Amino acid sequence: MTEEQKQDNTETPEQPGEEPAPEADAPETPAEEQAEQPVPDEGAAEEAPEAEAAEETPEAEPAEEAPEPEAAEEAPEAEPAEEPAEPEEELSPKQRRKRERSQAPAEARPERTPEERIAERRESKRLASERRRRYRATRRTKRGEPGHGTPPAEREPGSKKVRQGTVVSAGADKTITVAIPVVRRHPTYEKVVRRSSKLHAHDETNSAQEGDVVRVIETRPLSRTKRWRLLDVVERSR
Length: 238
Known about the structure:
5-stranded mixed β-barrel; 6 helices
């Protein structure tokens, strides 16, 4: 074995995870340099330009595939998101008509003098007033003539109350005091209860005397306390 082989065997084995130490570049001998140099071949020299041409051809292919940006440009652009519509302004009917008149296309007219403009304005106002008058007359016709309201109801005199009692006082002039007996059964105890109420009646001729049984009828207010009038004398006192 040569000395170089012995040195190779004596080298320590490589530990896992450690890179082999680079060998020192030994100076090559002239014999080794000659062995490493390839021998020139005539056929290889001819094939070299062809190989270079073949290597250049695949590089030219990507140049044909260049129009990729154009395809990207042809793709439809993303439409921007629609902005929320602003809420419409609420206008009164008068303001809406005014805006429509202002936005309407104006007719081309010949130039007019101020007097002609004033006359035209007056004529338009007259026509508008006539339209209003016709409209109001039509509305009145549709509603009909104004009525007179509900006719007053005919008043029929109702039956007047008549009471019979005893004269307890006849001293006043044209006025008598009459006691009216009231006899009723009690709603709870079923017992007959006797009571009396007094009233003032008008006696025009002072014909009734104390103790007489008389009949009185209701009438209009004759004084602060008189709401009755003497109808007749039923029984004279003894």
